[in-house]
Amino acid sequence: MKVEKKVFSNTVYLLMDWLVTSAFSFLFWFIIGKTLLPEFFGIISTSINTAILLSGISFFGFHGALIKLIPEFVKKRQVGNIVELNKFTLKIILLSNLIIAIFLLVFSQAITVLVKLPLKVVYLTAVLIVIMSLANFLSYILYGFQNMKKLFLTNLIGRIFNITAVAVFSFLGFSYFGPILAVLFTFFIIGLLRINMSYFHNNDLSNINKQIIFYDLALPLFFSSLAVLVFSSSHFLIISLLQNQEITGFFAIAFLLTSSIAMIQQVLAGALFPVTSELNVGKNIRMQSYLINLIARYSLFLVFPLAMILIFLSKPIILFFSQPQYLASTILFPPLSIAAIFFGLANIMLSSLYALGKTKINMIIWIMSAVFYAISSFLLTYYFSAIGTALAYLLSTFLLAALSYFYLKKSLKEFRIFNNLVKIIASSLVLILLVNLSTRLEVFPFMVKILLLLIGLAAYFLLLFVFKFYRKEDIRVLSYIARRLPLVNKLASAFLHFISKYI
């Protein structure tokens, strides 16, 4: 399979995985938002995000070694190296999770006072960290093998169970315990579905240098991962420490909805990463540059209109998703939506730097940006509450994206982004105008607002055509996707054949 098609195949399955994960995640939080008060929403968010934070730390960066080296070992047909790497990583994870769980249990009383979590929730969080880590460990192996199909299917089954469980627990009156238990059982089931003993047993000899893997790959990514977790989960702890769980709940729902923007870009980055690593075996710089440009371009094309819609329609989105008590979070949508674009784009550039072997540069950029965020978020949250956290996040993600661009441009001279960005911003002006108009004039009925939104989106796509944004390679990408959608294949092929004459 050509590398271009491999990226598209990865993208299709990861996109379906993202759609399933996002849809069920929204439904999960929708049930919570409709049935529990902001304070309980804050407790659940703090517990789950603390588990994500500490679970990520427990890998000590070895998940990066898995997703970078497995594609390279597969390319070289070094099966013994893959098995040895998996076994060594599993030992690291089990030991670190044991230490973290014991720490939480020993200091549980102090933690309840510090982050305002009930004692039983701290105990549940300790168990959740272990289960989550093992399930994620198996997902990184699947990712390294580029078995995105199994990754998608196991997530689908797990998410269906998750929604069923949270609905049942909610009906039975489990309060904030129900959602946390549902997440715990979900990761347990996903982990069981992903187990494959061939990952840990093979008769081939191994020849991996664990010391080099640790110092060149794992250790830089460990520090980078700490910084990533600061960006993805620390705000809930910071607001809990400096404010209260109600304000945490307001921030959590705004962050949850706007983070879908960055998730689209992370899906594209995830599809690109193993292929870029594989190309690194042959030092195919030209193809790497082409693919990174392609993915960065598509990411901006998809997320910019979504960010504008979220900013201007934040009030109806909040009311649909939760209760009127959460309307205070609408003020957080503008800074968090723009920050999500910066964060997602930075992820594409930083993962590309890591795949290119620039692991220490990747680490330095993450650490610098995370330190800036940690300091600014504490100061701004203390003085300005949740809006201060959002502004600190915006400034920090801009710094992250700027540094990422600077160093990726140094490594790949052919990496370009500004020309496409200007065209996207210019094309979105009509969309911004119409969506803003529909929100300003309350006399418009709902269907008229939807019509204005659709006209704005149509104008966005047409203006990009006028600005010559689309390319021949876009036709190839869409044709590849259309062939995997039999219900619309003929219609899509005819449409693509028609527009290809004008590109």
Report on the structure:
The protein is an all-alpha fold and 503 residues long. Helix content is 83%, strand content 0%. The protein has helices at residues 3-35, 38-57, 62-76, 79-106, 108-115, 119-144, 148-171, 177-194, 210-242, 245-279, 285-312, 314-321, 333-355, 359-411, 418-427, 429-440, 446-466, 472-483, 489-499. Helix 1 (3-35) packs parallel to helix 7 (148-171), helix 2 (38-57) packs parallel to helix 10 (245-279) and helix 9 (210-242) packs antiparallel against helix 10 (245-279). The mean pLDDT is 81.
Question: Which features would summarize this protein structure in a list?
Answer:
0% strand, 19 helices, mainly alpha, 503 residues
In brief, what are we looking at here?
This protein is an all-alpha fold. The protein has 19 helices and no strands. α15 packs antiparallel against α17 and α16 packs antiparallel against α17.
Tally of individual helices: 19
Uncertain residue segments: none
Main sheet attributes: strand count, strand direction, barrel closure: none
Strand content: under 5%
User: In total, how many beta strands?
Assistant: 0
Shape: globular
What would the average pLDDT be, to the nearest integer?
Answer: 81
- Helix fraction, binned, reads over 70%
N→C terminal distance:
26 Å
Give the SSE string: HHHHHHHHHHHHHHHHHHH
The structure class reads mainly alpha
**Rg result:** 23 Å
